[in-house]
């Protein structure tokens, strides 16, 4: 809905080995300059402000493109996976409730279902998969 059918056709026919996120910015710059010449934008300061904001947005898109361009090394994902699972198992053992006043022989682990630890693990593992 942001492009006309003619603009979409031009956009699709444009050959580029990379993403074409910059094409609408070029179109916007040309249209803004044309509008200034025709008097639709009355002040050059307004035009400059619009172009500065457009350039800021374009630089954010290019930064996002840079994040997509460079993949995360496999070692980082392995370290984070190991950290999540290690944290979960440490919490599973460390958050057990022991009542030492009861005089348990050998201080065995008290068995119960650690609901909040499981929820925390599911959230962390879900974020890890994302």
TrEMBL record:
<feature type="transmembrane region" description="Helical">
    <location>
        <begin position="82"/>
        <end position="98"/>
    </location>
</feature>
<keyword id="KW-0407">Ion channel</keyword>
<keyword id="KW-0868">Chloride</keyword>
<keyword id="KW-0812">Transmembrane</keyword>
<comment type="function">
    <text>Forms chloride channels.</text>
</comment>
<keyword id="KW-0472">Membrane</keyword>
<dbReference type="GO" id="GO:0034707">
    <property type="term" value="C:chloride channel complex"/>
</dbReference>
<dbReference type="GO" id="GO:0005886">
    <property type="term" value="C:plasma membrane"/>
</dbReference>
<feature type="transmembrane region" description="Helical">
    <location>
        <begin position="110"/>
        <end position="127"/>
    </location>
</feature>
<keyword id="KW-0406">Ion transport</keyword>
<keyword id="KW-1133">Transmembrane helix</keyword>
<keyword id="KW-1003">Cell membrane</keyword>
<dbReference type="Pfam" id="PF01062">
    <property type="entry name" value="Bestrophin"/>
</dbReference>
<comment type="similarity">
    <text>Belongs to the anion channel-forming bestrophin (TC 1.A.46) family. Calcium-sensitive chloride channel subfamily.</text>
</comment>
<dbReference type="InterPro" id="IPR021134">
    <property type="entry name" value="Bestrophin-like"/>
</dbReference>
<protein>
    <recommendedName>
        <fullName>Bestrophin homolog</fullName>
    </recommendedName>
</protein>
<keyword id="KW-0869">Chloride channel</keyword>
<keyword id="KW-0813">Transport</keyword>
<dbReference type="GO" id="GO:0005254">
    <property type="term" value="F:chloride channel activity"/>
</dbReference>
<dbReference type="InterPro" id="IPR000615">
    <property type="entry name" value="Bestrophin"/>
</dbReference>
């Amino acid at each position: 809905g942001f492009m006309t059918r003619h603009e979409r056709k031009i956009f699709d026919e444009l050959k580029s080995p990379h993403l074409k996120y910059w094409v609408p910015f070029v179109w916007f710059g040309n249209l803004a300059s044309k509008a200034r010449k025709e008097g639709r934008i009355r002040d050059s300061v307004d035009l400059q402000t619009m172009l500065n904001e457009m350039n800021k947005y374009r630089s954010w898109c290019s930064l996002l493109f840079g994040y997509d361009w460079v993949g995360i090394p496999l070692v980082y994902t392995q370290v984070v996976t190991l950290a999540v699972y290690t944290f979960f198992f440490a919490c599973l053992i460390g958050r057990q409730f022991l009542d030492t006043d009861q005089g348990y022989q050998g201080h065995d682990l008290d068995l119960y279902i650690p609901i909040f630890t499981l929820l925390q693990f599911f959230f962390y593992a879900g974020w890890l998969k994302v």
